[in-house]
Amino acid sequence: MRKFNWYNLKQRFSLRKYHFGVASILLGTAIIFGSATTAQATELSPTTPTNAVALDGSLQADVTSSDVIPDSTPVLREAVRALVSDTFSPKVGEKVAVKDLANISSEEKVAIEQAIRLANPDLPDKSTILVANDGSATLTYEDSSTDTLSASELVYQEPVEASSKPIRQTGITYKVTYTDAESGKQIFSQNKSEAIETTEDIASKEVTVTADFNQPALAKYKLADDQESSITKELREKSSSKERIFDFKVVENTEITSVRLPEGASFRSVSAPIVTRYDEKDGKAQFTVEGVIDGGDASEHNNNIIRSINYSYDSMTNQTTWLVNIIPSVSGDSQLGYVVASNSRIISVENTNETGKYGKKSDPVDISGLPFGGMPNYTYKKAERIGYTHITGGIPDSSVLKVVTEGEPNTFYIRTSTALVPLTLENNLKSEDPKVVKTRYDETSRVQIPIPKEQIDKLIEDTKKEIEKENDKTPPAPPTLTEQNGSVTVTPPKDEDTKTVEITYTPEGQQPPITSTVTKGDNGQWTTPDQNLTVDPNTGKVTIPADKIKDGTVVTAVAKDKVGNVSPEATVTVPDKPKTPQADLITPKDPEKTPVVDKTNLTEEEKGKVSEAVKKANPDFPASTTVEVGNDGTVTVTYPDKSKDTITSDKTVTQIPMADRITPKDP
């Protein structure tokens, strides 16, 4: 507050003319201070002023410029008016709770001003109070003097209360990827989702993903040395897709899952085995291991080319089928020969070539008894030669040799040769001379298929669990049915294997009942084709509105699991009596007020905000409830049974103060 210094005030007066009224004041002053000072009248010279009577009858006197009152003479100082801010001290009332100390809302400002006025009933008239955004207040009085009250005296932070929002169910999708640590190439990816129950506007959940190599594309991979087997992240709803990726760095694991080429093998590359599970008729789990070994892809002069070898191992028969694709180097009438060897028993060898316009072959001749040099010391072998006859258009451009072996270790060796006469062919196949080998037939080709035991054991274990589940004849729990004022709610059981819920009811205006099916898809979402039913896609909860179901009828529901087990039947009866309007059963909660520019004429945007505020305050409104906002902010809530509730505008909107809408310009 500004204070006036009354004690150091000095005044000098030079009076030339004064009225009698002024003389009276001086006379009174002399009387008051008479004890210390001689009366002024005795000090005046009788000849100094000249008194005269003015036309208006007042007594006047002339005072010369030399008649100046000295500083030492006590006089009545001129009266100075005191400022209101010097005489009035505003009191601080009850503090107001606010949501944000740095940004006080319009409603909170009004509450702060009211608290100040209640605490100061003697506040001078025409005083104004301006509350700033930080909660401080400035009091301006009629004489333009001011007082300021700090925010710490007027407001405090409103305590954060425990959430009273309803629990909602949602799902967050994420992706699991496996990337080759050396090449950076993505080997495999899989989309997944996580169900979440939350009361927050944005759901979040900590999720842990463990690497799973039970996929054909990952058969030949393992985790990189610095890669943990599990990754944990906090998933947040509405986050970017990049933030929801669990990426495992992997490297090839040739020791466990890839086809091995023993020393001396000539093939350039092999593919990772693909392990596939299947079940026998009695339900026993079986599997196949399949892959391709790539060889050459172009014919070489005087050399046979093995283009590829496809293999397939079957656990049920314990047999491996080898399909060898050969491009023979022949011209005219020629002989094709081959030697096959393995440590697994050779069941059969069958030669097929693409006959027709390309040529034909004679019956094979067994030459297995010949002494073949330079071969691996395998237990079993089979050798044959076949004659090709030249026809118009040339010879076959490929010949497929099908070999079936039984048992492990699934080793395989092949040697081929072509010649014009049988004797030359047989000598080439027997020869240990590398020159002959390289000139007339393929380099030694040997392969071995290891069975990926750990992967297969896991497949079998998983299969057993699936079979046990499929053989489980325990029915699921029945759905839960509730009736309220003519509406029926059907809630599926919480059994994870529940696949469908069948609901039988009689629609309004129809005589025979109908059965509708609500189905849970592979993505976990519930759907139904019945337009009368309202379905929560996340929970499967079904509502049959009162106006969609006939009074006095029975509603039944059963649940079915994935293998067709049926739950006990649940029933509820819709009463055949007048229904109490939903408006009589529901009391809408007042929403948070929406600040508007003109309370008598809301904009469409403001109406939308009011509508959202009402819905947010009343999350339990029945499905199909509508909310309409009038021009003055009055809200009309219409329930499914067409009954209505009204929320008046004084509970939905608040006027934005003029001071918040206008920013004065500097003069």
TrEMBL record:
Keyword Transport: no
Signal peptide: 1-41
Entry keyword set: Signal
Basic and acidic residues composition-biased segments: 587-596
Pfam families hit by this protein: aRib, YSIRK_signal
All copies of domain YSIRK Gram-positive signal peptide, residue ranges: 8-33
Name this protein carries in UniProt: YSIRK-type signal peptide-containing protein
InterPro entries hit by this protein: aRib, YSIRK_signal_dom
Domain Atypical Rib: 90-157, 587-655
Source organism of this protein record: Streptococcus ovuberis
Region of interest called Disordered, as start-end residue ranges on this chain: 468-531, 568-596, 640-667
Domain of life from the UniProt record: Bacteria
Stretches with biased composition (Polar residues): 481-490, 501-531
